[in-house]
Amino acid sequence: MRKYEMVVILDPSIDERTVDTTFEKLIKVVPAEGGTVDNTDVWGKRKFAYEIDKKQEGIYVVLNFTSKPETAKELDRQLGLNESVLRTKLMRVDEK
């Protein structure tokens, strides 16, 4: 099991009050595969430095979780298929 940090940018048309519940549905693969979700931090709407899919802002969510490498890849793949997710960035956290 390894620790990961993932930054997810969601479509700004999603209601900010429902981001927590929407995001919980998106990351259900982690607990299903035996991993744990350590922390979910919603940063809210932020302006982009450049447009992404003709949008000038997005809702940023930072997720810290512990899982197997295969589970992390599967989560990244599933988020990439979702239409409400604009971008993802998956990083492995060094434990040093």
Summarize the structure.
The protein is built from three helices and four strands. By secondary structure, it is of the alpha+beta class. It has one domain: Alpha-Beta Plaits (2-Layer Sandwich), CATH 3.30.70.60.
Can you give a write-up of this model?
- With 96 residues, the chain is an alpha+beta fold.
- The chain has one domain (1-90): Alpha-Beta Plaits, CATH 3.30.70.60.
- 26% of the residues lie in helices and 49% in strands.
- It has three helices and four strands; from the N terminus they run βααββαβ.
- It has helices at 19-26, 29-32, 69-81, and strands spanning 2-10, 36-52, 55-67, 85-92.
- A four-stranded antiparallel beta sheet has the order 2-3-1-4, covered by helices on one side.
- The longest helix has 13 residues, at 69-81.
- The protein is globular, with a radius of gyration of 13 Å.
- The relative contact order is 0.34.
- The model has no long low-confidence stretch (mean pLDDT 90).
